[in-house]
Amino acid sequence: MLNYESVKLEKGLYHLANRSFTQALELADPSAQYAGTELANLDAFERQLKRFDIRIGGADCDKVEKFFTTTESAVLFPEFVRRAVKRGMEESILPEITAAVSAVSATSCKGFSIDESGGSYSSETAEGADLKKTVITEGDAIALSKYGRLVTASYETVRQQRIDVFAVMLRAVGHKLAGAIAGNALGTIVSSVTPFPKTGAAMAYSDLTALYGKFTDYDLTTVIASPANISAILAMDEMAERTLDEKGQVRLPFGAKLLKSAALDDHTVIGISKDFALACITGTDVLLESDRLIDCQLDRIAVSVRIGFQSLMSGAAAVLTV
Question: Which of 7, 88, 110, 128 is 20 to 30 A from 48 via CA?
Fold first, then answer.
């Protein structure tokens, strides 16, 4: 018998200190031992799906009730829900606008500030003189806000749904939740810089090139705007010859990626250098009431996450008011 077939699944795996359900599974059934086998591309959770023959996609996709065939297979359901919601969040613009992601076990964390007024980088240092300084000091506390959604449904409603269809519903919840979180992220950027106005009555391509010109130490990699402003940009003559890149994304003539966010109002266009502008701090991963889900209590699927943002380098973001 392979090791994954003998792993004991129980509710307690969701309640271990400083260890997620997947980490607990990996500890009991390390992926490294499957190197070179047909199971090499599966993680510990996916091997458990195989163990109980739960097919979550394809023509032979099972229905949700397959998770509840045994008391052990039911333990897998909360992790399936968490992964579907998490995938929806990862399909949002959040990964496209954050330079780094860190995790803390608190509802707030200390930020930092950077002072580079001690001299420019282009200034030569005379023999025997002190080097120009970049000073990093402790900043204000960053509050990690809680975002969540309560999905209500009866077991009878959900049990006959195909698993892949139910996963789409959960991904949509995660995607929209991430859209709300993106509003926090973009608000952090806006509050960290002084915006500059458009030059005419309506936004023109020259305003976008002016946004590009605001970046001296860093490169403008990403432009974020509301759906209405994205539509206006795409209608500009300068965009007539633009096509989607290999990843299906639109780029401005000077190379910056164009992103849409309904969290932005129609008076704000943001430009960032993606690798230097914003940090994301998470207080929790996606949280669920796992015990309720294992016990088939699907009337209340509460999904939540705690998260905050910090602006990083000065000059890595600019805001155009239109």
Answer: 88
Write the secondary structure of 155-215 as one string of H (helix), E (strand) and C (coil).
Answer: HHHHHCCEHHHHHHHHHHHHHHHHHHHHHHHHHHHHHCCCCEECCCCCCCHHHHHHHHHCC
Dist CA 289 CA 303 (whole Å): 8
pLDDT tens-digit readout, 244-276: 777 778 999 999 999 999 999 999 999 999 999
pTM equals 0.85
Boundaries of domain holding 241: 193-281+311-321
> Looking at the domain assignment, is residue 296 inside a domain?
no
What confidence tier does 82 reach under pLDDT thresholds 50, 70, 90? Answer: very high
DSSP 47-93: HHHHHTT---SSTTPPBGGGGGSSHHHHTTHHHHHHHHHHHHHHTSS
Q: What is the CATH number of the domain that holds 218?
A: 3.30.2320.10
Does residue 226 fall inside a structural domain?
Answer: yes
Cβ-based neighbour number of residue 47 at 10 Å: 20
Structure tokens at 148: 């969540």
Going by their DSSP bridges, the two strands 257-260 and 222-225 should be labelled as parallel
Q: How many CA atoms lie within 13 A of 310 on its CB side?
A: 22
Rg of the chain (C-alpha set)? 24
- Could you tell me if 48 and 7 are in contact, meaning their C-beta atoms sit under 8 angstroms apart? yes
Strands 278-282 and 100-103: what pairing?
parallel
Query: Sign of dihedral through CA atoms 123, 129, 134, 139?
Result: negative
Q: How far apart are CA 45 and CA 90, in angstroms?
A: 19
CA distance 245 to 147: 33
Q: Is residue 179 part of a domain?
A: no
Q: What one-letter code names the amino acid at 184? A: N
